[in-house]
Amino acid sequence: MDRNLLHPRSWNVRARSAAAAALVVTICLVLAGGALLLVLYRTLEHSARDAADARARQIVEQLRTTAPGGLDSSLFATDGQVGTIQVIDSAGTVVATSPGADRLPVTFEPVPPGESRYLGNIDLGDEPDYWIVERGAQSPQGPATVVVGADREPIEGILGTVALLMAIGGPVVVAMVAVASYRLVGAALLPVERIRARVAAISTDRLDERVPVPDTQDEIARLAETMNSMLGRLESGHRAQQRFVSDASHELRSPLATITAALELAHTRPELVDTSLVDESLLPEARRMNHLLADLLLLARADENGLTHTSVDVDIDDLMYAESARVRDMSPELVVRTAIAPVRVVGDPQQLARVVRNLVDNARRHARREIRLNCRTSSDGAVLEVADDGPGIAVPDRQRIFERFVRLDTPRTRDSGGAGLGLAIVAEIVATHGGTIDVTDSGTGGARFVITLPADGTRQSSPDFSR
Fold first, then answer.
1. The pLDDT value given to residue 410
2. CB 3.0 to 4.6 Å from 119: which of 112, 132, 297, 447, for a disulfide?
3. Listing from the earlier edge strand, what are the strands of the sheet with 447-453?
4. Alpha-carbon distance 214 to 237, whole Å?
5. Are the C-beta atoms of 105 and 59 separated by less than 8 Å?
6. What is the mean pLDDT of each run of 10 residues along the chain (467 residues)?
7. How far is CA 463 from CA 135, 374, 456, in A?
8. Residue 42: Cβ within 10 Å count
């Protein structure tokens, strides 16, 4: 026999629950039975003592006027409580006794008239044991002591019978509790088993399936709802992963095809490879692929462990000024309006610079004539704003644009922009720094991106408005 089967850890939940219920009921029955027997014993003892004391009082009353030999014989009758009665004179001689009682004194401790004494349990050897009550009396023949013994044997017989019944009925009750617990726990776990079986049958190509939710409003129903919520997240994550892989493959295919075609041409017609082919085809496509791979690696690190960053003071106003100068140099046809106040936050300067650059590049690609760069402080922290006068972003798309490889229709396409990772990177970096990002309409009809970051050591001054 495998000893591991005897260890509770190898049992299933139903068996452990039944065993625990049986153990608890056993302990409760033992404690309750012991308390019951103790209370019953004390109650019967006091009842017997009271009966013995009452009989002694009656005899004492009659002894006041009657000699011991003339006492009413009914006073010496024994029953289930009173077991023996003796009247002992001052010399220690038994002058009256109950039928069948020994003529020797049960005990001889004279008690003055009018007083009483409880001697407790008296062991008479082969004779039955008694609880002895003594009372002093004054008879016409002189002082006497009335001794009444309450019989313990009937009480012990009652206690033995009750203990036997409890010993027989206790295991039956424990067995019934164990069986009932086993069945009830099995019935309660049946929905859990259905959930387990359904989850075990769900594969990656069937993530749209859901587990059954019981009609009861209990923990199992909440478990099923939680499992369905988890399956929904897994399905969304799986689809996003598939879409991510598909989009990444699509984005890499174009530059790889261009580079492959140029290399094949160089292999077959080396005389056609010149500087213009390298500068106009190979290098731009290689840079595009390198930039895409760098973005993918950054997002992969964010998915795996979250972006880590240094914590130093970063002047956001310096980053905004640098980006405004870069836009003026690269796109002199655009009007760059700024309202930049000195703002300092604690964060990673390279990552925050990338946030500002990605937003500015996004605005520059879609602006018609003008972009706006603003930064200021507020009660919530540091606020950065980048706006353009382009076609704007529809309300249903304002959360979707922060997903990876998302490019909206209209001018926001691959020909006019990147691979659709810039805003996703912005959202990851902002979240890493404990900030928020929102998209609204700009005053000129385009899109307005607002970033709020926790500020530290912010300098207060008037904004510098320039063109």
1. 46
2. 132
3. 436-441, 447-453, 381-388, 370-378, 335-340, 464-466
4. 26
5. no
6. 58 84 92 93 89 89 86 84 85 82 72 84 68 87 87 86 92 92 86 83 79 80 86 80 71 75 77 71 76 73 67 90 90 90 90 90 89 90 92 85 70 51 86 90 87 66 40
7. 110, 9, 18
8. 10
**CA angle in degrees (0–180, nearest 5) for 98-103-108:** 100
Q: Are 148 and 124 in contact (CB under 8 A)?
A: no
Cα–Cα distance between 383 and 316 in angstroms, integer?
Answer: 9
Spatial separation of the C-alpha atoms in residues 159 and 45, rounded to whole Å: 11
SS (H, E, C) 176-223: HHHHHHHHHHHHHHHHHHHHHHHHHHCCHHHCCCCCCCCCCCCHHHHH
Alpha-carbon distance of 73 to 97, in angstroms, equals 9
SS3 assignment, position 435: coil
Amino acid at 386: V
Length of the chain: 467
Locus of tokens 């019978």? 161
Token pair belonging to 182? 């086993």
Please, which residues bridge with residue 377 across strands? Answer: 382
* List of residues 6+ apart from 58 with CB closer than 8 A: 75
Paired tokens of 71: 């006492």
SS3 of residue 146 by DSSP? strand
Question: Could you give the CA distance from residue 14 to residue 186 in angstroms, rounded to a whole number?
Answer: 6
Q: Is 307 exposed, middle or buried (0-12, 13-18, 19+ CB in 10 A)?
A: middle
The CA–CA distances, whole Å, from 67 to 61, 85, 88, 112 equal 11, 16, 12, 17
Query: Tokens 């069945």 sit at which residue?
Result: 183
Alpha helices, H only, 305-391: 316-330, 349-366
In 202-330, the DSSP E strands lie at 312-315
pTM, two decimal places:
0.50
Give Cα separations from 353 to 76, 371, 380 (angstroms). Answer: 113, 18, 21
> Taking Cα atoms as reference points, which of 253, 191, 200, 260 lies closest to residue 223?
191
Answer yes or no: are the C-beta atoms of 180 and 25 closer than 8 Å: no
The enclosing H or E element of 128 equals none
